[in-house]
Amino acid sequence: MQEEKAYLPNTKLKGTTAVTGLVMGVARVYSRGNININSDPVDESRLPEEKKKFEQARKTVGVTMVRLSDFAHSRNDSDTRDILNAQHDILNDPELEAMVNRMIDERNLRAEKAIYDSFQHYIDLIKSNDKSFIVSRLSDLRDVRDRLIQNVQQLGMIASFGKDAVMVAEDVSPIEVITFARNGVKGIVCSSGGLTSHASIIANAMGIPMIIDAKSAMRMIQDGDTVILDGYGHSVIARPDEEAASSYTRAIKRHKEEEKQLRHVTEKPSETACGTKILLQANIDFEDEVLNIEKYRAEGIGLLRTDTLLMNSGPLTMDRKRQEEFCQTAFSASGSSPVTVRLLDVGGDKLLNLKDREANPFLGWRGVRILLDRRELLRNQLEAICRVAGRYPGRSRILVPMISNLEEFLEVKRELADMQDNLQKRGVPVDSNVKLGIMVEVPSVALQIRVFAEHVDFLSIGTNDLTQYTLAVDRGNSLIASLYQPLHPAVLTFIAMTVQAGTEFNIPVAVCGELASEPFAALVLVGIGVRELSMTPRLIPKVKQAIRLYEIADMKKLSDALLGCTTSEELKKIRNEWKAGYEEKLREQRTA
């Protein structure tokens, strides 16, 4: 009975959107399967043959990795290439090679068993470290292991699933994501996975819509099912009936038409209907995204996140040279526009997982608190930024995350001055006018914003954290998702206070949280007085389209109405009324 229930039509699964998009296709349930390892020892005379099998498997898998790396290179995808290089290093690790051959010789093992046991030794070592930024690489290790074993057993790895395929898996490795991309896969659904995993990052780079953490996907979806991946609704629909399929077909067509229309908006200036300039900038996580700065006409980078660089480094260490290269790429891709580099912001739900677990990581060791405790990490990063800033004078802004008191900011300011002085003495050109600002994401800062405004060069509002700290709502907790309201009057009041302080002290105020990328919210923010918005590059045209249709006076009416709300129902009513009017405006524009 339970099995029949699992395969009912219109089965909806909730998940987390790793890459937005809306696609409908054929489910291809992908599993590496349980590898059947033959543990029976072999005759001593066959040991050279087993070692030869292992060596041949290494060569074959190595060639595959090189081809995949070439594919990544053809897309200017340096992050993917870095990951593949790391996996290639695993494959060619001399200690691993020696261990496999030693196990074959000393224990008379078959090549597949020696490979499995050797990799398991390393996997157990990594698990014992209990650090998520290391544990997240387990899928990479397993992928290399399974490819070797399957090659030894003369098994195929991934067949071509066709251009209509939506992959359904427990989890996927970076190599698998690239292979899926080469086969024209439409989307990926995982029952586990993380937003900061290598696979999610590469899927984003490849533009493949991806839902993760859809917990029942492997049980509720059968190979060959029609599935809808709705990245906007954070859901997957298996076996849609005719009505649902038709509805989503229309929605997909509508999205494609909207994308065509938005291409015309891309070239137009970012200003309101009354001519007020609004700066629309890009949030950038990794190097491949810088190509989208020009594509979507972003006016510089409002948030260059450096957190993902930690994934290819050791625990709380980042290679200074690699950081410098990342910043150099960002500056060179931004023309003459400004670039705001945020200092390392790990902790909470991002990358860091301590051996001594924190009871409440969101209120714990994160952001600037880590940087001030680990000064070498801070100085390393400041040096990388300052070196690049010296090549592009007048364009650099450094953003300090998770500030909760003025002393933290002043300490970072001293470190920056010391670093610039040190570099100058070493003959390295520096930009003495680098701007230093803070993230406004903690209520204590918003309440005392005038105190901070006296000392900072700019303010950037992180609405994601500001919302969760103001409303005491964990933004990652699905049980209380309805309480997470970025447009709550209390949050908007803090934003308005920050804007007012910026005006009073004549310093720029930007919003770089996810709120800025939603048209309705963007209008509200502009109505409050924000003139700089930063977002995922491909969402810029949609926000620009909305801004160009309204005057400042219209937006102020909207923000005043929301500030006066006392219930979420009032807010919802205002939003729905705006949406109806906005859609009418778009229709009039299309027919004009």
How does this structure look, described?
The chain is an alpha/beta fold and 592 residues long. It has 3 domains: 2-33 and 158-245, Phosphohistidine domain (Glucose Oxidase, domain 1), CATH 3.50.30; 44-152, Enzyme I, Chain A, domain 2, CATH 1.10.274; 276-591, Phosphoenolpyruvate-binding domains (TIM Barrel), CATH 3.20.20.60. Helices cover 50% and strands 12% of the residues. It has 24 helices and 16 strands. It has helices at 2-6, 47-74, 78-91, 94-107, 111-129, 132-135, 138-152, 174-182, 198-206, 217-220, 242-266, 291-295, 320-333, 368-373, 375-389, 406-425, 443-447, 449-453, 463-471, 489-505, 519-528, 540-548, 552-563, 568-591, and strands at 11-14, 16-19, 22-30, 165-169, 187-190, 210-212, 226-230, 235-238, 279-284, 301-304, 339-342, 396-400, 435-440, 458-461, 509-511, 532-535. The strands form 2 sheets. Strands 1-8-7-3-4-5-6-2 form an 8-stranded mixed beta sheet. Strands 9-10-11-12-13-14-15-16 form an 8-stranded parallel beta barrel, surrounded by 4 helices. The protein is globular.
